[in-house]
Amino acid sequence: MVDGTVTVQRDGELLRVTLERPDRRNSLSHPMIDTLTGALTDAAADDGLRAVHIRGSGADFCAGADWVATNTTQHRPRTGDLVRRIPHTAHRVIELVHSIQLPVVCSVRGWAVGLGCNLALAADFTVAADDAVFWEPFVARGFSPDSGATWLLPRLVGVARARRMLLLGEKVSGADAEEWGLIHRAVAAADVDAATEDLLTRLAAGPTVALGLTKQALNHAQQGSLPQAMSQELYNLELSCRTTDFKEGLAAFQQRRAPDFKGR
After folding, report:
1. Per-residue DSSP letter, 8
2. Which of 14, 37, 183, 244 is placed for a possible disulfide with 126 were both Cys, Cβ 3.0 to 4.6 Å?
3. Burial class (CB in 10 A: 0-12, 13-18, 19+), 233
4. Mode of pairing for the β-strands spanning 185-187 and 125-129
5. pLDDT attached to residue 77
6. pLDDT tens digits, residue range 226-240?
7. Which residues does residue 17 pair with via DSSP β-bridges, in sequence order?
8. pLDDT tens digits, residue range 18-29?
């Protein structure tokens, strides 16, 4: 697996996506990014799915895009190569994770670097080992950030801490990432799988349409005013009230029992 691979497995109502390049800390080659983009695009249109799980193989989550392999060619890329290509590769991955109307959960051990770090930050929930390392090494490598770092970090942890990570290249442990509000939860490395599965089970049992519309409204609200946010909420409410899960939620409330949502 010189270029590595991305394993995509349907597990009932869950989609399991595993980055498979452990000898390179799961750094993403071009074919791996293409596979990841395709898997997320297909998941967005799959009515049978209720959650997506992204993880890394071996000791690490993802060491980012494989810039070393990208720059080993003897041929100099033409001017504008990055501007032409990256919006359809690395940036598209982040956009899909952020916008897909399914909850996305990442489980992180070891290193989450660059694109790998931003992938974990774009997810709806990231469960990390308390000794995991989140790192944005762009400036340390002599170039400016990409893959949404300058948008994600200030919104999650504020501008001051974003500067620490992006301008000073500070590494953040999983424990500190939870304390900062960078991720959902940090646990002991041995407990990452169990904590992730508990979360996935909870999400997959939820009202999938309402969850997706809520995620969409949260994203929309980051861009506009309060009236704009409430207008979007009203539109989404109209849609979610037409679902089978809405009827089940009302019936469960009236009958004083736990709802049995089907994701419809």
Report:
1. E
2. 183
3. middle
4. parallel
5. 61
6. 888 888 889 898 999
7. 8, 54
8. 999 999 999 999
Nearest to 164 by CA among 183, 147, 185, 180: 180
Are the C-beta atoms of 174 and 130 separated by less than 8 Å? yes
- Alpha-carbon gap, residue 66 to 6, rounded angstroms: 14
- Tens-place pLDDT, residues 100-130: 999 999 999 999 999 999 999 999 999 999 9
| Helix, coil or strand: residue 106 | strand
Q: Give the Cα separation of 180 and 60 in Å (integer).
A: 21
Cβ-contact 33, 87 below 8 angstroms:
no
Tokens in use for 169? 């290249």
Q: Are 120 and 108 a contacting pair, CB within 8 Å? A: yes
CA angle centred on 16, ends 15 and 18, rounded to 5°: 145
Alpha-carbon span 185 to 136, nearest angstrom: 19
φ and ψ at residue 122, rounded to 5 degrees:
-75, -20
Q: Which residues are bridge partners to 28 per DSSP?
A: 65
Which pTM does this prediction carry? 0.90
Strands (E) in the chain, as ranges, are 5-11, 14-20, 51-56, 104-108, 111-113, 125-129, 133-135, 172-173, 185-187
Confidence of residue 90 (pLDDT cuts 50, 70, 90): confident
Residue owning tokens 């539109």: 235
Reported as type and span, the H/E element at residue 37 is helix 30-44
